Model the fold of this input.
Amino acid sequence: MSFSITDAKEERALFKRRAIIAAVFMLVMFGALVTRMVYLQVLKYDEFITKSENNRVRLQPIAPARGLIFDRNGVLLAENLPAHSLVLIPERVPDLEATLNYLTDLVGVTPREREVFMKEATQWHRPFEPITLKQNLDEEQIARIAVNSFFLQGVDVEAELVRHYPYGQYLSHLLGYVGQISEKEQDNIDPINYKATKRIGKIGLERYYERMLHGEVGYQKAETNARGKVIRTLDRQLPVPGQNITLYLDIELQKLAMDAFNGRRGALVALDTETGGILAMVSSPSFDPNPFVTGISLDEYSSLRDSLDVPLFNRASRGQYPPGSTLKPFVALSFLENKVVDPNRVIYDHGWYQLENDERIYRDWKREGHGPVNFHQAIVQSCDTYFYEMSFKTGVDRIEPMLEQFGFGQDLSVDIWDALPALLPNKDWKKATRGLGWFPGDTLNFGIGQGFMLATPLQLATATAVLANRGKWHRPRAVEYVGSTLVEDETPHDPLILSSPEYWERVVSAMHDVISGPHGTARAISHDLKYSMAGKTGTAQVVGIRQNAKYDSKALAERNRDHALFIAFAPTDEPKIAVAVIVENGESAGATAAPIARKVIDAYLESLTKQELLNGR
Done:
């Protein structure tokens, strides 16, 4: 049996040492804790209070309401309609794939919607920015998402204003449309002002006037929970809505003009001769711009893109056509101005013209010829032979500068963003592009609006308005007011001054008889005409015809037949409206293009008469 003898004194000393060590350790730890607390609560107070506040309070941008678009009579052409969209913040979604599958079953997300979402989510986008998965939710879909919100972290329903075009295809080429902002467009916009904006003007007036229509972004301070869901709004700075714009266009005139084409391919531009304002601008066929706003399906877009009728193409401002005989009034002015012709001199048209030492025969559209014709009759009957001879005597070096003064070969529009200058050829152009000199035969073709010469319907309407005004220029424009501010032409075009005012009246008189004269090529539309109108028909070849061959419409495919063109203004002495029309493959301008122009002019002048009566005149 063994015994352990305990030394009480030694045990007390050991305990005391251990207690001291423990106390020192506790003091050190407490000191470290106090030091840390002082560091966090005092020294780093500003930094951590800001981080804490940012976790609780978010500064959210508020998109401005886009400006509205009205016609000249106050009719709404582009509006903003409320809509609800299903959005996700990818950074706040724990399992994106599982959430998308859940939402597909819950509200019927389509494969296309999912594809578009994933493309945007995996490519560049602003951090913590909601990305739209499905648009235009109905009440049942909104309710389902609300009931299942506990399982849908990072998912929300957003109310927004979505652009809508109530007149659809009637205005798509002129107004254009808005669409999702692309990555490329992000580099060219103000990142602050567009922070809450999802869509931007893509084409047309929506694009040209984007800065005015967009407005200025607003902000709100919102308190959020741990899931990022907004609990309440603490403060708000309202956005500044975009400015409304008012057009010169009359929507009823636009609808009448579009319907007059009855589905045929072509274009029309009608201008107010007193201002240059675009009263109607039609490109037929057209398309509905509304699907482009929220995202058109691939099948729908492919159908439009691949159509032989190219409805996406703006024929009015970008269609480049040989002007044919509609160019003759302007060429005729160059004859007079350069004193090449005696207006009373008569030449005999056998139906053809031939240059010296040249075997080629340049035929008149009337194979048997017009017989004896002077300057006036040559325009009225559209005698090619007369213009062949006088164009050769005048020369391209004197014809081309005259046409340039009417705006051919230039884009002189104020706000038609996609307008093309088309082509006004000359010797230098041919040498530079074809490596060839200018031949006499080129001048003959040029003189009747064929050959290399190309013009857009917008250019033809502009030139016609200048002719109607006897040389006074108004550059064509679509918008009259931005807000309450009149849109003025900052770069006005110089007036076209001829050496003798008589020259204007000779050409205008002939154009009047094109419609009202017994031998005019557009006399078919003169029936019951209650005002004076001046005009000119034209046809433009689509395919070449052999020199001795006769044009046979029935032997040609429909798309290879001649284009029909017509220009006109009215009333003749106090013009109010100028119109240019092209009907692709329409052949007889007097039967196809001219009746469309008359419908538009009739309607516009009637509306002016009614307005004068309302004003008590």
Observations:
- The chain has two domains: 59-247, 251-614.
